[in-house]
Structure formats: structure tokens, C-alpha cells
Amino acid sequence: MSISTGARLLSGVILFIALARILSIEDFGRLTYCFSLASIMTLLVDYGFTNKLLIDIGRSHHKVKYIMGKVLMTKLFLFTILLLIFFSLNRFGFIDPLNKLIITPLIIATLLVSFGDFMNVAFRGIGHYHEETKIVTIASVIHFILIFSVAYTTEDSVMIATSFIVSRLFYLLLCIKRYNKIIGGFTFPKRKKIKILQKNIVYNFTYAMDSWLVNSMAHLDKIIINYFLGVSEVGIYQAGMNVVRGLEQLGPVLANVYLPVLAKYNSTSFEFSVIARKLHIQLLLTGFSFFCIIFLGKSTIPSIIYGVKFSGLSDIFPYFGLFLFLRYVAISQGVLLTASYLQNMRVLGLFISILIILILPPYLLNLYGITGMIFTQIIIVTILSLYYLYVLKNKEVPCGISYNSIVIILLVILLLLVNSDIYNTDFIRNGYENSINRWMGIW
Known about the structure:
Elements: H1 2-22, H2 25-46, H3 49-59, H4 64-91, H5 97-125, H6 129-154, H7 157-182, H8 193-203, H9 205-216, H10 220-228, H11 231-247, H12 250-263, H13 270-296, H14 301-306, H15 317-339, H16 346-359, H17 361-368, H18 371-394, H19 403-418, H20 425-442
Helix pairs in contact: 1-6, 1-11, 2-4, 2-5, 2-9, 2-10, 2-11, 3-4, 3-5, 4-5, 4-8, 5-6, 5-7, 6-7, 9-16, 10-11, 11-15, 12-13, 12-15, 13-15, 13-19, 15-18, 16-18, 17-18, 17-20
Transmembrane segments: 7-24, 30-50, 71-89, 101-123, 135-152, 158-176, 279-296, 316-340, 347-364, 370-389, 401-418
Pfam families: Polysacc_synt
Protein name: Polysaccharide biosynthesis protein C-terminal domain-containing protein
């Protein structure tokens, strides 16, 4: 698991850090925005099949080819729908001509990944985890080397986006080769294909919604920032989020260590309570350590990682640190929900998050600029943590929170407030004046 996590980190966070350093802020912002838009559109083809496939294959190993065949048929149908949507958006001028040159190859690349990941699920379902690890590791290394080389030699966003197709095609071909050797192809339904297609779409709708809610949260922020502030601000924001996404990778690793241990005990047992507290403190201290690094290094870390052109990131860097810290707090509560078989309660929390990110940013971005989106993320993760805490308390599940953890949380907030200008009168007044001028301009 650690190998595949590291490989995905290389082809994701580390690659985008390298791209931010090579490209201009505007080009990096445009590439990031187009990648987010392509990723959200591709969720239609993903349709949350992963969890449903794992359940179905786990129950019926001997029907794996038939199960995969039914889902592949559905994915191809959804792929056709996506093509129609994309061509319609392009035909009626909803996509900027410059962005179209970047979005088009990125959509193709993300679709190739979608079908490759789909085949990898089969390996997971039959217990061949090493196959997935091997494929992901090889493909991620090739992806990083290829994209970085193209970026370094051309510094051209369109060429970089096009190279994504080459890399992801290699990944898909590698998946197909291993899949055919181990699974042996697909078995498609011979009759009632339309009825089976309809059944797959209806039955998997809840999984699709859950997948959309989870994955869209990672991309909607960039799309909203681009709409209100432009691609340059997307570039600065994403540079900060790259650091957050990289440092938060330790959270899921710790969660996967503790989850099997927690699952052995009843949620009302003393052992569960002890492990829950240990999990919470460990994640809290990890988040606090990262916050301190970001807080103390706010003046130097952005320039070291991205170069002088991102020196302006220093002013808002501590807010990214607070967001990262609160993410670790929320992860601990989320693990306890899953271990107590209350994961379905997380869907409401995700739905609330989507509503907040659609409602708050228009106001906060006008008031505080790019910092407003970070405030939105902080508000979302705070509400999620409180919601998770409420559910755990209501179901009488130990939440792991102690007086020590409360002191650490208050210390982080105090450190940020003492060194923050968020409560500065001029800062707020200028923000309000900016907001009023923007809204007057709209009217």
C-alpha cells in the first residue's frame, strides 16, 4: 500500500509541484483549471463503479468476467453520453477556445485512466493486490518522467496536456495486458442488454452520487476561483493546495493502520475507546506538527518549493496550514464512523460540503480575494468535524477527544489569530468596498 501511495503521490502532487515551478503562474493555473474540469466531467463515466464491483466480485469470484462485462457495457454507454455533452458544450461556445486545446486532451487522458482503474478493481476484487501495485507504480513513474520532460523542454501547456494522453494510454495498455492474462477478458450479456444497462445505471446511482460528492470537492474550488478571479489566482491557490494534499497523505495511511484494529472491537467496549483516543491524538499531533512547519516557514517554504514567482503565497500560507490541521481532525472522526459501520452518515456531510462550496465563495471571494476560498474550505472541514462528532456522540461511539486535544486545537487557532490580519479594520473595510464595487459592476 505504501508503494502505491508513494507512486500516486509522485504522479500527482509532486508532478504538479514541478509543473508549478516550470510554468508561469497563469499557465499553471489554466492547466490546473482544465484538469479539474476534465476530472469532473469524467466522473460521469466512472459512475462510482469501484465499490459496487468490489462487493459483487467479492461475492461471486467465478462470475468476475460477466460482472466486468456488464459494467464495461455501461461505461461505454456513459462514455458516449459524455462525448455528446462535451461536443455540445464546445459547439455552443461554452468552452473558451484556448482552454479547449488543453481540456480536450486532458478529457481523453482522464477517460483512459477511468478504464484502466476499472480493470485494476478486478485485481483487487480477487485478492491480487500486488498486480495493481505493480501496474500503478510502473505507470506513475513513466507518467512523471514523460510529463516532466515535456514540461521542462517545451514549457507549453498544450504540449503537456497532449503528453498526458501518451502516458495514460501506456497505463491503459498495461492494464489490458495484465487483465487479459489474469482474468481472461470479458463476458457480455447475450440478451436483454438494454434492460441490464438500465438496471446497472439505476442500481449504481447511490454509489455514483457518493463518488461524485467525494471527488468533485477536490475540483470545484478551482472552477469557482477561475470564474470569479481568473486563472492566475487558480495557480496561486493550487500551489498552496499541492502542499496540503502532499502532507495529508499520511492521514489515510494511519487510518488504514488503525481501522482493522478498531473493527475487532465493539464500539461500546473499553478497548475501542482507548484505541480511538490513541488514533485521535496521533492524527492531531501529526496535523499540529505540519501546521507548525507551515506556520514557521511561511516566508521561505513557498519560494523554496516554487521559486520567487510564488513569493506572494507567503501571506496566505498559514491559512493552508490551519486547513491541513483541521483535515487531520476530521480524518480521525471519519475513521471512527467507518469502524462503527456509520459510513452512510458521511453522505449527508458531503452533501452539506457541496452546498457550502457553491454558496459561500461568491461572497468570500469578493470580500477577501483568493483567501476567501481557503476560508470556505476551513468552514467546510470545521462543520464536517462537528457533524461527525455529533453523529458519534448521538450513537454513543467514543470520539477520542480529550482535554489535551482541545488545548492543541485552541493553540493553533490562537497562533493564527495573533499573526493574522483577518480582524484588521482596514483589511475588512477594503474587502467590503471591493465586494460592493464588484456587485455594483454586475448590476
